[in-house]
Each structure stands twice: as C-alpha cells, then as structure tokens.
Amino acid sequence: MNTMTTDPTTLSLGSLNISERSISIKSDLDALCGEWELLSDGKTIPLKKRLSRAIAIIGSRAAKKAVVLVEPTSYPSQGYFVALRECRTNGYEYEVSMATESIIESLRVDSEEDLADMSEDKNVKLLNGLVSEALNRNAADIFIEIDEGDNFKASFDIDTEKVPYRDYSRKEVTGMMRYYYQTIADQETLQESIFSMESSQFATGDGIWEGQKLRLRYQSKPAFPEGIDFAIRLLKMSSGGGFTSISDLGVSSDQETLLLMVSRGEKGATVMIGPTASGKTTTIKVLLTTMLKNNPGLNIRSAESPPEYIIPGVRQYVVRESKGGSGHAFAETMKEILRMNPHIIFVGEVRGSETMDFFRKATESGHGVLTTTHANDAYGCFSRFESEGLDRQIFAQPANINALIYQQRLPVTCTVCGIDHADYDLDESIKKRLKLLKVDLSKVVHHNSEGCSSCGYRGTKGAIPSMEIVVPDTAALACVRDHDQIGFSKAWVKVCEVNGYGDAVETHFYHSLKLVASGVVSPEKFESKYTTINTIDLEQNCRVWKPGQEFEGV
User: Fold this and answer.
1) Contact 437, 538 (CB under 8 A)
2) How far is CA 123 from the centre of its chain?
3) Could you state, in order of their start, the residue ranges of all structural domains in the chain?
4) Least confident range of 358-367, 407-416, 509-518
5) pLDDT for 253-270, tens place per residue?
C-alpha cells in the first residue's frame, strides 16, 4: 500500500477499479481488502462522531494497513484529511476508496451494536443500580452527560441542585440506555422505534425499583460539539404516596385557604406556572384530588403526553403528539373527551401549537380546565400563551380564567448542620445585605457547604415550594387586555384587601424571603435562585410588604 494517496478517483485496488464505481455492498469490501476489520471503532484509529457518518477506516491491525472509505460528497473535505492524518499518527499505511453513504452507515451501526454487546444482565444491573441510587437519595432527575473522550458523568437533581454521582464508559451508557429504550419504554410513547446514540429521542416507561412503582421519563439530546446527553425524570406512580392534600404543600395558611377556594372553581382555566422541576404537576395532582374530595361526583378527564402520576378518580388518557405538529392527535382526543361529558379537563402541559389549540377549545367549551406552562411569574403566562397563538383579548375574559398559580421550589436548609445567623462569619457581605430587610434575623440559618451525614454532605435536605396565587377579577383582567402589569397587580391587591386574603396577596419573591426569615431556606440559596438581595428588588418584587415590616407568622 502507498503511504499517501491524493487522488482516489484514479486508485486501483486489487481487481476493483474504483474510478468506475463506489463501494456499495459489503462483499465489495472483501474484494477490496481481504480479511478486514473496522479500524475507526473509537479505539484503534479514533474519528470524531461527526466524521463517522461520511468516513470509515477498515484494514488489518496486525499488518498496520488501512483503507480510508470516503463518501463522495466528503472528498475532499476537512474530515477526509483528518482521517488521513489519524492513519499516519497511528502508524498505518493507507489507501483511499470511495464508498456509498449506506455502506459507511452500516459499518457505523455495526460498530455501535458491537460496542453495546454486553450481556443483558449487566445492562439490567447497571440501570437498576443507577435508578435505585437516585431513588434512595430522593433525586428528581438523573443526568448522564458526555465528558472527555468516551466517558460520561452521571449526576442527580437533589433538592433542586445538581449532585455528582459517578462516571460511566460509553459502552456502559449505550448498554443501559438501549436496554431502557427498547425493553422498558412504552413503545406507544416512541417516535423512533430504534434506539440511537446520535439523535434526540423521548420515551416513558414504568418499572418497580426499591419496592416502588416509578415512571422514567427519558430524553436524549446530541451535544455540541459532539456526543450526547441524557436526562431521566423519576416519577413516583403509587396512587397512595406523595402529597394528597393542600396542607401537604407547605405554603402559608392564607395561601392554603385561597387554594381551597380555587379547588372549588369548576369553570374557567386554572393555570399552573413555573420553571422545569418546580413541582407544577404535583400541585395539580393535589388540586384535582381536593376537587374530588369536595365533590365525588365530578367527572374529571385528562389528556397527557404522557401522564406523570396516577391520580385516583381521574380518568387519564395518553396522547401521543403528532409528528410535525399536525394537531390530529390532540384534536381527536378533544372530540373523544368532550363526548364523555366531563366537568373538568386536565391538559398535561401547554408546550406548542397542538396543546395550545386543545387548551383553547377546552376553555372556550365552558369546562373547568387545569394545565401547566413555563413562565417567570403568574402574569407572565399571558405573554407565553400569546406566543403560542392564544390572543389575550380572548383569553383574558372573566369566564375563561379561574386562577393563576406560579410555583418555585427552594432547597431546605439542613437542620443539623445549618449555621445560625449569629454564628455565621464566612461572608460578611451577605449579612449586610440581609440588614436591608430591616426585620428580626435571629431565625435565619445559613448554608453549610460542607454538609453532614444527615443531609448527604450537601447542606440541604428536601425542598419546599414558594407560591404566588392570583384569582383575577374583572378589573385585573381588563388590565391584562391593556398590557398593564402594574394595574393588574394593584387590582389583585384590592381584591385581597376586600376579601381578607392576608399574605396570599404577595408574590413568590416575598414568600421566598419569608422562608429565609423563618430559617427554612438559607439566604445563600435564595440568592442563587433569584438575585443578590438589594433595595430595588425588595421594593419592586413585593406587592404590599416593605422593608421593616415583620413577615406574617415568623
């Protein structure tokens, strides 16, 4: 073989003249190279993943001879010259041949199948160990992310914070994820039937771990510049476990009273708003459960893609969103559910035109509707819905809205290792900022970054919601239609003053500050979720509270 070939169109190898045609079937490879093996397998001659779709290298390890197979549109290209350089760097003599895209793809797929060719028992043990550890640590999510080379790092979302767990090899991750996707996942939730380490895929699947029924919600996503990341949400499916009543949520007594009032509303939309993993669906589950306790005769039906929890008494339906956003799946489900004469409809999440159309029709049909969405506060849902095609002039009508609820989750300070405010001397600047509150700080407890055995050396143990609830009246909704957020807030304050709603008038920012003043959440974690405590935010982000006023109930 030559040590370098610059023009593959004139190359003749064995009896095959590749100026006449490209390699298109695997038998051609045998004629080209005799007893060959794949060298660009990530170990012998490394190739970046983005290059392996158009280039492959075969040959003999023993003879240190190689053939670089190039898809015609990639000759010449940077990837082509990278492949030649890798051959030289690894001491291989090489020649070059054109090959069809299908041949190179088949070599890549075969390589990945070989890479994941561990026994199923090992895949099961690895996945079970990962999920069990996450469950024992009370994690909400598992993250598996590409690191250097072919290594992956796994971590857990515990109490809203990312906690490192352990490293896995590419072979181990491929085996685990393929086993989950093709064995555990509900095939009805898949949009691609075959597992891939190179494309975005979504799935859900149920199983029993540590004696608990869990739903694993799986999402993969190719990362830049190469590799792939995985996120797995752990959803506890036991109908008897978890939060079941409003008092379980940990909000103020005034907010409990207001939530109970909201749960009695059987008309209009109740929109649960907040960031990812803020507990929105958990709160919806509590509201639906409370509705059924108050009125066992309610006919409640849900359309979810897919359901996250088992909600006793609610008839739940899986909706597989249409590919390309055609809308057919949700449109058909809407017709079917309305024929079942529901009183209340739960639309799992508004996250695109298809679910938005479903939500709009359900609301306009005069039913009570509950849903979740992402926004920065209660008022923010109007802009979010408008961006999805729902005109606020139509939505912000009194008959269409029951309540807007924003929720944020904050990590709870460990009661064993947290540092009392009087003893805290690690950061004087934060103690100065706390003085801006002008309230008694004796109950404040600071975060201990070293943690202890009780909290798993994290300094936090558990999480608590900080909530903002608005039940807008006619005046508040008129402000929404006029794009007047300040007027909206003032109208809600007036409603609360007239009805005696207490601190339920306030924002989630206020309720988070209240958790700091009461020693439940550390000021360090508050600032990491919001911003450094400052006079402007204290004045602008609370509706009626002003620095110097004691927090109610603290």
Assistant:
1) yes
2) 24
3) 8-115, 120-236, 246-411+463-505, 415-458+520-549
4) 358-367
5) 999 999 999 999 989 999
